[in-house]
Amino acid sequence: IKVKIPFGNKYLDAIFSVPEKKPTYGVILTHGAGGDMNIPQLVSLAAYLASRGVLCLRFTCKGLNVAYRSKAFKTVVEYLKLSDDYKLCGVFLAGRSMGSRAAASVVRQLSQDDDGDGFIQGLVCLSYPLHRPKLQSKLRDEDLLLIRCPVLFVSGSADEMCEKQLLEGVVSKMKAPKKIHWIDKANHGMAVKGRTTDDVMEEINAQVFSWLRENVQLEHK
């Protein structure tokens, strides 16, 4: 179901992937610095989750400024929270690359200025860009260290923007319940030599869903 979400004097394009049975939980998904909500990875994950009873709302927000992207993400969270069509118990925020930075920023902001109504259940970071390529000295970890809700990282072990040991170091300092799933030999775009894109996406989707299930009571069909 396509929707347009009011954002300032503009609209954000978004698509709901709706399960057959009434969902109790949802995931809000967004893309990285390039592309939009229709990149294969997001489309695949949304379809996978919806087929297993999780509502998925993915949206496009162009703009290379993380603060702007976070603001857009926050608007989408509010939109879903107030939606009469879907009365959800809670949502997980998820993003790919820069989208996961925006999601992390929103989770941190909402958990700080929220009265803790528990609507945000957790955070899924796909290919979190911990640093710029070859710039390992400057880590983008400030939001991660302040988050309290559960966090799942799915990263490639050969990601040029997220060195394995550095992410493991940051994660060991996080106070939130957290898990990293490494996609062996995958780069930032989750490409792995010798594996098809579908094969890699299947692994990512299954990991995300089983983690969601560990964190909330999802009926598994």
UniProtKB/TrEMBL annotation:
Name of the molecule in the record: TEX30 protein
KANL3/Tex30 alpha/beta hydrolase-like domain mapped to chain residues: 27-210
Transmembrane residue ranges: none
InterPro entries: AB_hydrolase_fold (IPR029058), KANL3/Tex30_Abhydrolase (IPR046879), NSL3/Tex30 (IPR026555)
